[in-house]
Specification:
about 210 residues; alpha+beta; Ubiquitin-like (UB roll); DNA polymerase, domain 1; 2 domains; five-stranded mixed beta sheet; two-stranded antiparallel sheet; 8 helices; disordered N terminus; binds FE2/S2 (inorganic) cluster
């Protein structure tokens, strides 16, 4: 799985750097320093005030989600996951660990799977965001979604949107070349507490073998 936040430096933001800054100031016990840590240089192309600073209050931004533009006001500290779920009512991506370990929040950022809980909303400005809602619909499901139903690749279903996003990435990336090991590698960042892994693999391999799954 690609976890872009830590390597994404051009915008000047990442959840890790923000938390690091906030943690350092908390250790110093200086409230003024904490505010300063939250108000960072916005960097090229990101929302900011006249001083080139974004936050700490809400800032207007436009996110490109599932092929459309969505305008919202969010604080720079707000994660993309919380913005999608809380501000845009796209609740397919699930908030489970909220710390980049379970994969329930997996979405695509510029076509690559990422943990939405590890990306700041402001960091996603300018990127194409794809959520499970944009992958398929009940009337026109993605081949991976169809295969998940056929193979009963879910039990409680809470992890399923994240798995589907990772598996759909695997089928579009590898097509009919995808094999058992490839599915396992593509979903190594997704956890299922119900233990549906064998069915997930079977479903994804069938979707990859179909023309539509590529
Ligand atoms: S909620 Fe994002 S990885 Fe668990
Ligand atoms: S289906 Fe229940 S956690 Fe995966």
């Amino acid at each position: 799985m690609t976890q872009r936040p830590d390597g994404r430096e051009e915008g000047g933001f990442s959840r890790r750097t923000l938390l690091k800054g906030a943690g350092a100031t908390a250790a110093a016990g200086a409230l003024g320093g904490a505010v300063e840590a939250l108000a960072q240089d916005a960097g090229p192309g990101l929302p900011a005030n006249a001083s080139g600073i974004a936050g700490p209050g809400p800032v207007p931004m436009t996110l490109r989600v599932n092929g459309g533009e969505r305008k919202l006001d969010v604080e720079p500290r707000r994660t993309l996951l919380d913005a999608l779920r809380g501000d845009l009512d796209l609740t397919g991506a699930k908030r489970v660990c909220d710390r980049g370990t379970c994969g329930a929040c997996t979405i695509w950022l510029d076509g690559e799977p990422v943990y939405a809980c590890m990306v700041l909303a402001i960091e996603a400005v300018g990127s194409e965001i794809t959520t499970i809602e944009g992958l398929g619909t009940p009337d026109a499901p993605h081949p991976v979604q169809t295969a998940f139903r056929k193979y009963d690749a879910l039990q409680c279903g809470f992890c399923t949107p994240g798995f589907v996003m990772s598996c759909a990435w695997a089928t579009k990336t590898h097509g009919a070349e995808l094999d058992d090991a490839g599915v396992r590698a593509s979903t190594c960042g997704n956890l299922c507490r119900c233990g549906t892994y064998p069915h997930v693999i079977a479903a994804t391999l069938e979707a990859a073998a179909s023309e539509e799954g590529k």
